[in-house]
Structure formats: structure tokens, C-alpha cells
Design goal:
The protein is built from three helices and two strands. By secondary structure, it is mainly alpha-helical. The termini are far apart.
């Protein structure tokens, strides 16, 4: 493929969503959403996010802020990362509970 295919369409355009302030806003919204997930972990998940992530309706407002402040590709990335880390933690916790049996 040629280099032109990967070149930005408008090289003079500044993507404000990747600037430092926007990234910090995205990270704060992300942290608030995942903190809500941890806090509400005993509630039944009723909402579906990207990559199959389920979350309770109490976190819906935090999710909306997260999606509003972050690029869609970042939201997918952070959701995948959260699911992967949760899965690993579950496996480690399960392994520790069976140790010494």
C-alpha cells in the first residue's frame, strides 16, 4: 500500500481530543466509570458496553461521560483492558483459593 493511504487527510488540522487536557478529562471519566463498576460489583449488570462488558444501570451516567470524553477507539481499548485485568485477577484469586488443597 502506498504512503498516501496512511497520510492524514488534513495535515494542518489539530485533533483536540488527543491534546493533554482532553486526555486528562478522558482519564478522569474512565476512572470514575471503572470505580463505579468496582463499587457496584454486587449489583446485577443490566447494561452492555463495548467488547461485551456488562455494567449495572447505576453506572449509566458515568458510562455516558466516559464515552463523551474519550475517542471510541480509546473506549474499546480501555474496556478490553479492564476485562482482561478482571479475568486475570479472577484466575489468580481462584488459584489462591485452591492452593494447599
Amino acid at each position: 500500500m502506498s504512503r498516501e493511504a496512511y497520510a492524514p487527510r488534513n495535515p494542518n488540522k489539530i485533533h483536540t481530543d488527543v491534546l493533554s487536557e482532553a486526555r486528562q478529562g478522558c482519564y478522569k471519566a474512565r476512572d470514575a466509570f471503572y470505580a463505579c463498576l468496582e463499587k457496584q460489583s454486587d449489583k446485577k449488570p443490566t447494561e452492555i458496553a463495548s467488547v461485551g462488558l456488562l455494567y449495572p444501570s447505576e453506572c449509566k451516567a458515568f458510562r455516558a461521560e466516559f464515552v463523551k470524553h474519550c475517542r471510541a477507539s480509546w473506549v474499546n481499548h480501555f474496556d478490553r483492558q479492564y476485562c482482561r485485568n478482571s479475568r486475570v485477577q479472577r484466575l489468580l484469586d481462584d488459584k489462591d483459593s485452591r492452593r494447599g488443597v
